[in-house]
Amino acid sequence: MMKKIIGLCITLLFLGLIFYKIDMVNVISVLKLFHVSYLPYITLLYIIALGLRGVRWKLFLGNEPKYSWLHLAEISTVGTMLNIFIPARAGDLFRAYYIGKVKGEKKLKIFGSVILERLLDGTAIFLILLFSVKVYFSTSEAINITTTLAGILFLGSLSAAFVIFRSPKVLGKFFDLIENKFFKKETGTNNLFFKIKHHALSFSEGFSVLKDNKVLVLSFIYSLIIWGLESIVVYFIINSFGLVFPLSAALFVLTLTTFSTMLPSTSIFLGPFQAAYILALSIYGADKEMALAIAVVHNLILVMIVSVIGLSCLLRYNFHPDKNTLNG
């Protein structure tokens, strides 16, 4: 309940900032500039990106034959849809529960692979932001220094997470050390420490693919391709209004809006998403009305694509499961 209240407050705060002294007549006039002819290209590229997420997730799960990249892509899309409409990343939990149940895997192991996906996505997005800053703000020493320091902190923390979870043996030795020092006499399975140890080791199995450097590199390449496609999608959406913005504008929009979805908010990321859009395009001289109109169309298009695919998959797997899909 508290998270919902916080999310609502954040949404109202950002909406207040967005609609403060805004000319809705100009917003509507910009909306009318949208060229529907761009929709097929936007839809196709975004669906390809969703499909590649299934290919990458299969890599995270050891590329085992029992997993179908298409099935994983569909379940990933369902998870994305649930994340859009339900708070607290419910879609990520759904993915872990569903695949774990259907494939007879440890649900925490699957959840670990989902978190690994998020970490790689975060890395790719941050590198895109770093690239954009270096290109667009190459003459601003303060911004470059700030971005570099943030990068060191972010990538350092990420590297530490990879080292900790890359090998279950390393994590196991850590828990064994604590167990021998503090819980040697405790043998009951109900002990809180042993439960934490069991869950942590199961979770770390989702990171076990990191032991294979080839898989790690390939996964990262897929991440860059996925976000590269999404950058082009944003570029098409922005320029579908008859405006001429460089690709770097799409990169700023993509990174800032992606980071904005991490903030608590109501459904469809209402508030933070639009505010991030306005901030990103203001760098290129776009006024608030223009940026808001583009943000509304952007959000609407992607939500509709994800919802149509996600809902059809969710209904199909709940009520009419495909035998081949469940077995392989």
Task: Compile the SSE list and pairings.
Layout: H1 2-19, H2 24-31, H3 39-60, H4 69-85, H5 90-103, H6 107-136, H7 141-166, H8 168-182, H9 192-204, H10 213-239, H11 247-260, H12 272-282, H13 288-319, H14 323-327
Termini, distance in Å?
39 Å
Radius of gyration: 22 Å
Strand percentage: under 5%
> Got a strand count?
0
User: Mean pLDDT, rounded to whole units?
Assistant: 81
The SS-based structural class is mainly alpha
Shape: globular
Q: What is the percent of helical residues? A: over 70%
Spell the H/E element sequence: HHHHHHHHHHHHHH
Largest sheet: number of strands, sense, barrel closure: none
Tell me the domain tally.
1
Contiguous runs where pLDDT drops below 50 for at least 5 residues? 319-328
